[in-house]
Amino acid sequence: MATERRMQFVHWQLVWMLGSILVLVVFDALSLESVFICSLIGLLIITELTAPFAVEPSWRKRLPWLVIAGLVGFAVVIGRWLLALLPPEMVGL
């Protein structure tokens, strides 16, 4: 049962990621950062929508580490975007 739920989680994440890539291609906005952010949003949504009520399987106990790694990556992407917006005099590089 746990393996079935885990595979269902992975399938939903893959569907979300492929759908996000398709939408980004349609709107001509495909970039690595956009795919990463859309995938992270999907991970957060799917994690919350598939959360069990009573007993948490052991494989779900590792999901917070994946979410934390994704949020650190999100902070890096936002930091790079902010540095690209600032004038070179303010960056000091």
Number of strands: 0
Query: Could you state the order of secondary-structure elements as H and E?
Result: HHHH
Give the biggest beta sheet.
none
- First CA to last CA: what distance? 54 Å
Mean pLDDT score: 92
| SS content category | mainly alpha
Transmembrane segments: 9-27, 33-51, 63-83
InterPro entries: DUF8044 (IPR058357)
Keywords: Membrane, Transmembrane, Transmembrane helix
Summary of the model, kept short:
This protein is 75% helix and 0% strand.
Could you characterize what this model shows?
With about 90 residues, the protein is mostly helical. It is built from four helices and no strands. The protein has one domain (about 1-90). The protein is elongated. The model has no long low-confidence stretch (mean pLDDT about 90). Keywords: Membrane, Transmembrane, Transmembrane helix. It holds the Pfam family DUF8044. InterPro entries: DUF8044 (IPR058357).
Features:
DUF8044; membrane; transmembrane; 93 residues; 4 helices; transmembrane helix; elongated; mainly alpha
Give the SSE map.
Elements: H1 2-26, H2 32-49, H3 63-85, H4 88-91
Helix pairs in contact: 1-2, 2-3
